[in-house]
Amino acid sequence: MKTSKFYSPDFGEPDGDGLEIIDNSSDKNLIKETIETSDFDFDSELSNLINDSDDDEDESSPEKAAKNFVPPTTEKSESTSSDDEPLYKVLAEQLKSEGLFDDEDFEEDDDFKFDGTPDSFKSLMERRDFKRGVKIFEDIVSEMPNKMRKQFQLFMDGLDEDSSLEIGSKVIDYSSVTRDELESNTQKAEQLYRELLRTKGFSQEKINKYVERAKDLDELAEEGFEAAQSLNQEVQKQIEHKKQEEQYVAQQRQQEAHKRLQALKYTINQTPEIFKGVPLTEKMREQLYKSMTDTVAYDENKQPLNKVAALSRKNPEAFRMQLHYLTELGLFNTDEKGNLKPDLTKIMRLAETKVSRSIDDRLKKAAFKSGSNLSNNLNDKEVDVLTNLENFLKNK
Question: Coil, strand, or helix at residue 5?
């Protein structure tokens, strides 16, 4: 086997005989070494080259990856798919993650359970707003001065306004007293001691006597402190008594309201008719009771309003005008005992005039068209209307 050197194809070959041959054998970038062999098979080598190229193809090449690509199977996750959860549930979770809700907002009770429905989301928002409102309210109360806070708490516990102001002030004054304070403030010690003796029913002369004795014995501060403790206990008893009293009054009001409702129902059931000849049916009695007792709205002071009261608030002047108009027509007349005695004379007179004018107009039109007598143009229905109206007026 013989090795020969050739010029690099990039530079070409010498063109002509006798020219000097430049030896580039030392520059390996410009020459190739080939092995001359007599058994070189071009077809076989070409086939091997092609096969080697296929085998050497990188498995991670884009072409190979594209050829072997298999789409992944998409399975919906029960925990992440929004299709499996109601819209408002997803929204609530998002708001919770942003701090607008907390775990307490979602706590279930007898009246609430968040299930992702629009109504439950509305209830969730209302619970959140109410809780935030209570928190703000509590913060405001906590920042009040001690005396004002105590007075407000007593008022919220059911005491009336005057009692809350008076008793709340006393509680703070008595409970905050210390011996050291009274040692340096003998005037307040004397005031407390005198107040205690007065509540026990002592006369002014006796009170003066006991106060002077305490001063002589240098016991006024001690007597004043003990008086504050005793007065505080008495005030606590007053608070409990006032609470019980208010509860009793509330129960009495509730019982009286129940009695009034029962009396109203009895009156409606015992009323055969309101307008003469028009008996009250059971259904109408139920509707009357419901209209008079059911709350359909509230006024500006949050007081409940029934149907008629609510209607009167929409346009008070127009409502009163209609009411007075019906009163002038005799619709609300009563007898000496207060029983309903509506007088429909004026109302029927208006109805009679309207019916008469309508019939008269029709008769004139009929006579004008036919040229015949008016009475011949009355149909049976019109005759019945006139007859019934005449009979009704005769019975009045």
Answer: strand
